[in-house]
Amino acid sequence: MSTTFASNQSGAIPLHVIHSDGAEEQLAALGGAVASWAKVNGFSGALGTVLMVPSDDGIACALAGYGTVAKRARGRFHGGKLSASLAPGTYTLSGGVPADEVEEFALGWLLGSYRFDRYAKQSSPRAELIAPEGIDAKRVEAMVAGEFLTRDLINTPASDMGPSQLEVAARDLAAKHGAAIEVTEGQALLDNNFPMIHAVGRASADAPRLIDMRWGDAGPQLTLVGKGVCFDTGGLNLKPGVSMGLMKKDMGGAATVLGLAHMIMALGWPVRLRVLVPAVENSVSANSFRPQDILPSRKGLTVEINNTDAEGRLVLADALALADEESPECIISMATLTGAARVAVGPDLAPFYSTDEGLASGIAMGATAADPTWRMPFWEPYESMIEPGIADLDNAPKGGFAGSITAALFLRRFVTETESYTHFDIYGWQPSPAPGRPKGGSGQGARALLAALPARLGLL
């Protein structure tokens, strides 16, 4: 797989993108020989189809079907299918893609080269693309590298991606960009007032920890907080097997903020970036935290545990409280937090909550970065649902209604000093293959944030 565009233009194959509407005229403009070859082979410009056009000494050009506007609107990353289906070689885009779609086309092409090959090597050569004119190639490459990091972290099973290995991944990223990193682990969590991170992770053989990475020494402060539950058994409220099968992805929030952090650092944003990852495994042991336990938190709020499988909001709460103590310009949390969010919007949309109207408006434009999102409300009439009476907060309100909203309201209780707080309740998984998105781990919301944050942080 490749995170960069082809650099050698010598011998590049022209790639002509053909729309279904008006295909005959577009093919005729390429010459009679090309039009005849397309007709003989039944090429009509249908979305995702390809045709190599031979010459006397090799390949004259390649044709790629781009379908109709209506067909394209039902998906994204159409360039990703082409990079997987064209013959190996280097291609140069020779028209046919509307100017406002070229960057997404190129982004999809690179994303389509992804292969998770840690355990089964895949060495087949791929079609490469020269960066089309008019796009910000550095930005596209940064987005691709960040997304591939996210995918690799999520796809790695918990046997090789527990809290200690997630720490190694964060340290590797810090070293790559010259960031500072500190880790608070095990008993030190209690000594430094992170009681809920410790409580959730203490039953695991791989000690719980809080990863704290900082980069940049000037500019507005941006703090990213990612849920790093490396595997979630459900704790004593043990998940059934069918629900436990994908729980290696329960650190998808951590994987996504690390991917976004790479994008920001690779692009050299003039910001003070902080990344907080509470990394734990929610396991079952003699010292597991229990239903009906009441836990203290860093913020001073007490939390009644009514379901040990609602653990992600607990570890995030301590990390958010720490982030809030500095009152940064923006705090953003990302987590694979609730099944309710999947029921509401499915796996393809990333629901988010925000106290910041300006940033929320920018995020909602994430479709321009091929990163669709959907804003959800911090619905204050539901606040009473997270107040159990015996403690300040309830980690799993009864009734089953509005599960994603009540989780977001729970987290908001731990951000009181920072005006701009945004929370993403992501899925982090592509359930079936699609152009640019193979089945498996998937980042959500990072590109939308990359597009929206510069205006909010005054970087434009």
Automatic annotation (TrEMBL):
Keywords linked to the UniProt accession: Aminopeptidase, Hydrolase, Manganese, Protease
An annotated GO cellular component of this protein is: cytoplasm
CDD domains with a match to the protein in the record: Peptidase_M17 (cd00433)
Listed transmembrane segments = none
Q: Where is the Cytosol aminopeptidase domain?
A: 307-314
Q: Which GO terms describe its biological process?
A: proteolysis
Q: One MF term from GO for this chain? A: manganese ion binding
Gene3D superfamilies, per database record? Leucine Aminopeptidase, subunit E, domain 1, Zn peptidases
The record, for Pfam families, names: Peptidase_M17 (PF00883), Peptidase_M17_N_1 (PF21337)
Q: Which family does it belong to?
A: Belongs to the peptidase M17 family.
Which PANTHER family does its entry note? LEUCINE AMINOPEPTIDASE-RELATED, PEPTIDASE B
What is the name of this protein? Leucyl aminopeptidase family protein
